[in-house]
Design goal:
The chain is mainly alpha-helical. It has one domain. The chain contains six helices and two strands; from the N terminus they run αβααααβα. The longest helix is centred in the first third of the chain and has 38 residues. It is rod-shaped, with a radius of gyration of 29 Å. The two termini are about 55 Å apart.
């Protein structure tokens, strides 16, 4: 009878362990900070962004200057001159808005630049995570750097260093 109970308990525990989901966590911020190409790409994006922002600000400042000049010269202008200057100011403001949309809009140049520089690196990291997941038979991998609902994880299930090692950036 004891053997039967021990065997049943052993089989129950084995069955429970075999059906348990295996999961791990990664810290994408940590991984990406340890990839030099990502830091270089991020710096390039910041430089381009600053350059484009200064271009937009220059146009906006030009429009403001035009408006201030218009305000001071308003009393000396004819109706035709007023209308012409107002149209010029509106056109300059519109030009600034269009440039801002071109650079920083949802499908703007900054988005495209970020996509072209970051996507290959992110794809490489994703492939490494996928490979490790297959090797270790993991069913779920959580990103603990962005998951607000993850309050605590044990260090034993974090595979971030393993991902870096597979990418060739081991510490």
């Amino acid at each position: 009878m004891k053997k039967l109970i021990v065997t049943f308990c052993f089989l129950s525990v084995f069955t429970w362990l075999s059906t348990a989901q295996k999961f791990a966590t990664v810290d994408m911020s940590y991984i990406l900070k340890n990839i030099p190409a990502y830091e270089t790409a991020n710096e390039q994006i910041n430089q381009v962004s600053k350059k484009w922002q200064s271009e937009v600000e220059a146009l906006q400042k030009e429009a403001e200057t035009m408006y201030k000049n218009y305000q001071t010269e308003l009393v000396f202008m004819s109706e035709d001159m007023k209308k012409k200057r107002e149209e010029e100011i509106v056109a300059k403001e519109k030009e600034a808005q269009e440039l801002k949309r071109k650079y920083f809009g949802p499908e703007g140049e900054l988005f495209k630049k970020r996509e072209s520089l970051m996507k290959p690196i992110q794809d490489e990291v994703y492939t490494a995570i996928q490979s490790i997941s297959k090797e270790r038979n993991l069913e779920l991998v959580f990103d603990k750097s962005t998951a607000m609902s993850v309050i605590f994880t044990t260090p034993g299930i974090d595979i971030s260093d393993e991902v870096l090692k597979q990418l060739g950036y081991s510490k």
